[in-house]
Amino acid sequence: MPPSKYRADENRTRKALCLSGGGYRATLFHLGAMRRLNELGLLSRLDTISSVSGGSIANGLLARVWPALQTGLDAKTGVFGSFEAVYEAPLRAFCHRNIRTAPLLLDRLNPLHWMSLWSDDHSATDSLANAYRDHLVQDLRLKDLAGIRARGGPRFVFDASNLQTGVNFEFSGDRIERGQVVDLQVGDYEIGHGKAPDLLVAEAVAASSAFPIAFPPLVLKFDPGTFSGGKLAEPPADPALDQMQRRVVLSDGGVYDNLGLEPVWKSHGVILCSDGGKPFATSAAPGSSAVPRLLRCQDVIGNQAIAVRKRWLVHSFEQHEYQGGYWGIASEIEGYPKHQRGYGGVVLERLRKVRTDLDDFNDDEQLVLMNHGWLLADAAIRSFVWDPGAPEPPRGVVPSERLLDEAAALRALAESDRIEPLGRS
Asked: What is the pLDDT at residue 294?
């Protein structure tokens, strides 16, 4: 009997890092985690980095500066010596930018943009893509990702949700099918996959981070024949397939899979999952009118989908189906057998409420989030990934020793849950 298409491949050896959505909060949380992975010599040895939304912001810049990081690589330890200057500092500078007010408000008020915004093929998310191009990834294209992979680097995968097919839509330099790397860069398993070497990574990041309600879907048009394969092409073929392949409607990757697991779970044996997504909160007043009630129902549905993925992942670790570890912004560091002093109590409660926004995070807010990601990644790796027979892992340097103090961290997070409609900067 042939193996089930729903089972993971056997003899998986690839290593993946999955970066969740969650706005700048997730970006900064992941930045702290990746700083620790770099100190441990793990970041440079990854085969795939899969990302959603705020994770795609971190992933997009990492892809752009990867060649520069490689020039400072210590081949023996696997550590990028230039990590802070080449990657960390520019990403922190980007997280000081307000990139949501202009697309959501200012561009819509500009009469010069009205004609394009009224079109079915343009939206405020196109302005978001322009912001990523101008300030984050520049003219990086999918063919550049393929070049990184060809030179021994990782596969960078950006995940969006296809609103037409209801599944995960991937952007990458190539993809893995049946255990083999193939030269296909965009698509999903319903409409098929194809090549789009000149597609901008800025558009992939924008599609991945087009949070529903706040941002409309990003519409991408493809030439006929770009896609091949796909479930909808199987007889009898879906009569709307040609339309769905020519004009793809994409929303935030978190609509389908906020952990970014979909591209790696069948083909990788080691999965590291960094989760900066919004924890679900109980509410004594979920709303009595239609809009708040529907939004609350959407939160409950989304929370159940994410919870199922988390439980499946942790259970798979426990059953030794995968190696790896999970850490999330709501995680209690005491839950890891090996850990340093981290955030708990009232600080952890504040961290759970930090806004998921694409507006300025000040330096101390950034450093507390980075500390949290650094400490939890360290605990997960030392507890569940590091070979117990190997020498002790390098100690590394936490992003801010000063902000490990509870009072200082609370001051830094005092207004971290507040969203300014017109932005903080």
From this structure: 74
